Amino acid sequence: KPPNNPQQDVHDNPFHLTDNQSPVVVRKLSRCSVSLQETGITLASPGTSDECPVPQKRPRWEYNSPHIFNIGIMNVGAPAAGMNAAVRSAVRTSILNGHQPYAIYEGFEGLADGRLKKMNWMDVGGWVGTGGSALGAKRTQPTKLGLPQIASKFKEFNLSALLIIGGFEAYDSVLQLAEARPQYKEFCIPMVVIPCTISNNVPGTEFSLGTDTALNAITEICDRIKQSASGTKRRVFVVETMGGFCGYLATLAGLAGGADAAYIFEERVGMRDLQTDVEHLAKKMVEGVERGLILRNEKCNENYTTDFIYQLYCEEGKGIFSTRKNVLGHMQQGGCPSPFDRNLGTKLAAKSVAFLAEKMHNNYKEEGGRVVVECTDEDTACLIGLKRRAVQFSPVMQLKSQTDFQHRLPREQWWLKLRPLLRILAKHESVYEVEGTEASIE
Question: Which of 2, 130, 178, 239 is the most core-located residue (most Cβ within 10 A)?
């Protein structure tokens, strides 16, 4: 039912909007949008169609473009919580901006096979709270399938922009397409990567979409594991986490779960370190501590495996404590996304679509009776990320020098500064430097 007050914004209620009795789009305006009176659009009776035609007149907060462009949306990499929320936001904000979103199923493999679908408003209904990837996520990259085949599909479906939601493979894929622009003009379109992986190993951002959900899952499981030994005195649990070569999950879960040690790839682990930790834990058990928690990243060390560390603690802890082993596995990837990941995916996708719309509007031209987008600047192929609580677009060509491609890691990782704090809280001798921010009051 339309509000009685014409100045009141419409929130979460779809209407057919008309301008001079011309029906236009069924849309949802958020509370942060301008009022309907400012847009010059009047309300009509609610419609019944699920289709969303291109609006003939847009509110001022939308990017005003005279042409309709096709925006490709795909998932690349491993599934992670928040992917579907980002796709939902991207589809609907593309429609609100007057463009046509195309869902590309199964990543670049689906693109090569032509598995694309025109999306409308209701196609993504209910996606915000679902886990996994509704579009399907594959790790295959463009160079493996062949750049000529990918370029031909770009031309066949007349894609004017590309939005990829995924992990390190998504970032590497856009980098490959950006480097191939001189040879293939089909790749001279705006492209954006939304980092979405539980590993948090993508350069250009401090937090990846899906990491919060995985971290909550690990922490909850570790709490349950420790509670399972509430009736058993002096027991140590060795838990293996995912993350590839990145130790973010092990470190942050160790801080949140009160771990005694967290072994990661970024910090070399030697036999003396393991011996010191065993002796330290045994001393704590004698002093009254009843349970211990050891976390290990899955690719911490190819020789000091989870089984090796488990056997070591079993042998050295005889008569003092018992040891149990748990490999969490893919339960870290599943589950419904946390509110943080839902909101983050929604916001990043909306900002990415606005970025793509601006670049398309500034770089289109008419060629052979067709309107095409052509851009070659570095800032038209970017990764959107969070840096010091601010959203930034970083060109992937500039991020290349900040990446360790062999181990799929950023060369600098902010959370490594928290490692000393983890050992201090476990009663180890270490030094933690508090990071401060300068602020001025005017």
Answer: 239
